[in-house]
Amino acid sequence: MSELVSVVLVGIGGYGGTYCSLLLNQGSNPVAKIVGVVDPFAEKASFYAQLKEKNIPFYNTLTEFYQQHKAELAVISTPISLHCSQTCEALEHGSNVLCEKPLCALISEAEQMLAARDRAGLQVAIGYQWSFSSAMRALKADILSGRLGQPKRLKTIALWPRKDSYYARNNWAGALQNARGEWVLDSPANNACAHYLHNMFFLLGATPETSVGLKSVQAELYRANAISNYDTCIFRVATASGAEVLFYSTHACGRLLGPVFEFEFTKATVNYARYASGTLAEVTAKFQDGSQKLYGFPDADGVSAKLWDTIRAVRGQGTISCGIETAMMQTICINAAMQSCPEIKEFPPELVYKMGVPGAQVKVMTGLAEYMEQAYHSNQMLAEVCSEPWVQPGKVVSC
Ligand SMILES: NC(=O)c1ccc[n+]([C@@H]2O[C@H](COP(=O)([O-])OP(=O)(O)OC[C@H]3O[C@@H](n4cnc5c(N)ncnc54)[C@H](O)[C@@H]3O)[C@@H](O)[C@H]2O)c1
User: Percent of the chain having pLDDT more than 70?
Assistant: First the structure.
């Protein structure tokens, strides 16, 4: 292994730009070097010119890259449908992998990724940045030490308006499958807000690097947008720890809220609020004896930590706090939610209005945000707090 870890960047437009920026701005003590870029539409990326200037070779496929080069680490920031095949191909060619969240679409793909990793004897990190953040790791350490007592209920709400331009930015946003018939399962729970669902499973894991197992999932799935998957979901998950996990998320709302969470333990309650009435509160545990502990902000350092931690692990130093098994519980939940609610319910069109100017409009379901908040505060599903004719409860599905 050379002194600098060799990195191939797979997908540099969109979120991949974050990794371009980190690797191109390492300062005077670099730890990694970019040895290739794989992206068939690389010229559209904002870092294209900067990478070209450095004479980094560009390829359309990983296969073409590996015909001429090797890399110790492949950083994959491509559409969800490619995560499994590209991770497996990178591992077969001797590269460790840092793949963006979510892990993949289907459980069968997660199993293929696990098998490929074990065959290769290499490491795979999944880019849920909160799991690499100092705040969440410190909180998890206290949970594991028993300081907070037994977990009772963890719940998170994230109401994130998304414009039509969000759904038009690529050909897989909001899709169940892409044009080639590959599974994507793109939704708030499997993309923009997947972090917050995964985070609850991660915090309940029995070790610093694992997530809790799932026993059952009950879901409600709805859509306001013209997409094949859902833009609104509510999940109730029974976990192997005995604690309940509740998750509320939508893109069909007119105002931003969250992530806001409340995690109840027998000896403490942990709260966090981003974008709640314009406030930003750090992760805070309030103990029954009246004391409190501040854990900091989970967005402070996770993004850079996931890259530098993975590079350290490739060098044989330190561990990866979110690998395939850790991220897989979110995949299991997403797949079970589809079984719980096989038909996605369309909100009645007469109740969906457009907010904003054409080209940057959000489809808003009347009253949805209020019902979601009510359900969150009362620890219930939407169908339990709302008696409108459009509600559709899902069945409880064993995992
Ligand atoms: N961690 C985070 O906070 C965060 C935020 C946003 C997106 N993401 C994740 O990043 C991934 C990409 O999302 P995005 O919104 O940037 O998508 P995108 O579609 O906007 O960009 C994907 C990039 O992959 C490239 N690409 C397409 N096909 C390719 C192929 N066969 N080989 C190599 N490159 C290919 C595209 O040209 C583009 O540059 C998703 O998994 C998403 O969930 C993570």
Answer: 98
Residue 47 identity (one-letter amino acid): F
Superfamily of domain 5-129: NAD(P)-binding Rossmann-like Domain (3.40.50.720)
Q: Mapping DSSP to helix (H, G, I), strand (E, B) and coil, where does residue 216 land?
A: strand
Contacts with 266 (C-beta within 8 Å, 6 or more apart), sequence order: 148, 149, 150, 152
User: How many angstroms separate the alpha carbon of residue 383 from the centre of ligand 1?
Assistant: 34
The ranges assigned to domains in the chain are: 5-129, 130-298+321-398
Domain 130-298+321-398, CATH class in plain words = alpha beta
The confidence score (pLDDT) of residue 300 equals 87
The residues, any chain, with a CB within 8 Å of residue 342's CB and separated by 6 or more, are none
Pocket lining for ligand 1, CB < 6 angstroms:
10-16, 38-41, 45, 77-80, 82, 100-101, 127, 129, 169-170, 191
- Residue 1 clears pLDDT 50, i.e. is over it: no
Q: What is the mean pLDDT of the chain?
A: 96
Distance (Å, rounded) from C-alpha 276 to C-alpha 366?
A: 20
Reported in sequence order, the residue ranges of 192-256 that DSSP labels E, i.e. its strands, are 214-223, 232-239, 244-250
